[in-house]
Specification:
Radius of gyration: 23 Å
Strand order of the largest sheet: 3-2-1-4-5
Strand content: 5-15%
Number of domains: 2
Number of helices: 5
Distance between the termini: 28 Å
Structural class: alpha+beta
Number of strands: 5
Shape: elongated
Length: 162
Amino acid sequence: MEALERAHVESADTVLGIVDGQAVVDGIPLAGAHGAADAAERFAAIGIERMAFQRGVTAGELLDFVRNLAATQARRDDGNDDHFAGLSTPHIRVGRLLVRQRMESDHSDIRAIRRHYHDAVAGAEALWDQAQSEGGPDPGMATGLVEGSRARSARTGARCWR
């Protein structure tokens, strides 16, 4: 509970995932952490690949979750296929990871992406210079810069990931 409270100071969610049999917390592998491999194996065995703990989770909610997790292990041993049904709580979400396929780009795609990046930087610099010289940005110029960037991204299939 203390670890979650510390993590929630910086982020509203703390996500534990199981990737290739390894526990990963907020994108950081826990290789070598005491009990991490065993926990990852147990979660994977009942089909849990992802747990998100939201800010506001209480000690009681966490305790109930752990108890239900133990009961889920017993249901799995009894042959029940719906292993993690009912584990989610108001502040804890349990499920599977969503995997997006990564498409390989050829060199022409990379060149186009670099060209679009440089065009966007040049446009932003021009907008900045214009705003400094005239006391404020030109809304039409700013809109054109954003719309032009969107159109170029749509043509090349480039995407920004959040």
